[in-house]
Design goal:
CATH superfamily: Flavodoxin domain
CATH architecture: 3-Layer(aba) Sandwich
CATH topology: Rossmann fold
Largest sheet: 6 strands, parallel
Number of strands: 8
Number of helices: 6
Radius of gyration: 17 Å
Order of helices and strands: EHEHEHEHEEHEEH
Mean pLDDT: 93
Distance between the termini: 49 Å
Length: 202
């Protein structure tokens, strides 16, 4: 009996990034729930990255210069995790109609790690649900040659939408989540193959 080779694709590595570092933040609740949903997808392996654990300074060295040792350690540790990912989901609130400063600073510290990879967004907040932050992030990631997927999740009045660790309307939200994850898998698979065939160049 001849055994057929296994041509099933390797699961995509999805990094779910908690974009808020403020005291009392709600981000970990949303991110942990979303990461569990993503982990149930057969085509994904999931890693949760909390930016609170990676405090990069606002002072950024000129290209070619080495940052001070602690900043270099943080940059290298986070950079390795970002580089190993095939796709990203950014979990973000909206501060003053835009992106949290720590998230934007983190994005700006890197380039190659984001390039030619898909990015999805899960936002939360009050009446706006963090949507204005997402609109700004789409422009930022386009500049970094990342591909943002059209579908996103938004939790308006998020503190009332969750019952402990889970959304009150879980069935409806899980359907939208699966749609976004399927889109990330499509783009992630296509872009991973493209990067392997021809590495992305600036």
């Amino acid at each position: 009996m001849t055994t057929q080779p296994d041509h099933s694709p390797q699961p995509l590595r999805l990094a779910v990034i908690v974009g808020s570092v403020r005291d009392g933040r709600f981000g970990p609740t949303v991110a942990t729930w979303f990461a569990a949903q993503a982990a149930a997808h057969a085509d994904l392996t999931v890693e949760l990255i909390d930016l609170l654990a990676y405090p990069l300074p606002l002072v950024m060295p000129e290209p070619g210069n080495t940052p001070f040792p602690e900043a270099a350690r943080v940059r290298d540790a986070l950079g390795a995790r970002l580089a190993s990912a095939d796709a990203f989901v950014i979990v973000t609130p909206e501060y003053n109609h835009t992106v949290p400063a720590a998230l934007k600073n983190t994005i700006d510290w890197f380039f190659d790690e984001w390039a030619a990879k898909p990015v999805g967004f899960v936002s939360y907040g009050g009446m706006g649900g963090g949507l204005r932050a997402v609109e700004h992030l789409r422009n930022v990631f386009a500049e970094l040659h990342a591909v943002s997927v059209r579908e996103s999740l938004s939790f308006h009045n998020a503190w009332d939408r969750f019952d402990g660790e889970y959304p009150r309307d879980a069935e409806e939200v899980e359907g939208a989540t699966k749609t976004m994850l399927n889109r990330l898998v499509w783009w992630g698979t296509a872009l991973r193959a493209a990067r392997r065939a021809r590495p992305f160049e600036r």
